[in-house]
Specification:
- This protein is of the alpha+beta class and 109 residues long.
- It has one domain: HIT-like (HIT family, subunit A).
- The chain is built from 2 helices and 5 strands, in the order αβββαββ.
- Strand 2 and strand 3 form a beta hairpin.
- The chain is globular and about 40 Å long.
- It starts with 5 loop residues before the first helix and ends with a strand.
Amino acid sequence: MEKDCLFCKIASGQTPTEILFEDDQLVVFKDINPAAPVHLLIVPKKHIRSINDIAEADLPIIGQMHWVAREMARQHGVSSSGYRLFTNVEKGGGQLIFHLHMHLIGGWK
């Protein structure tokens, strides 16, 4: 855990947040500035700064992120209508919090 990382604090329970899903590797919660009716963040508990910092040992976490995204889309009613998954990488790619995370957005009519 990085001491000043907001997502590390959320994942460890130090910052109160409504957790929608949690297992030994990930937490899922709503984005505080939603870009869609459904906007969730899928966040590893392990601090990985960005996609550029993934190690081979982290590959199971990446797979788990996608598996959980599929399940969250189903639970939030967007699996049939469609949704978008994306990860911003570094400042130039729109990353604002430097802890790997995936956005799940959808729910537009």
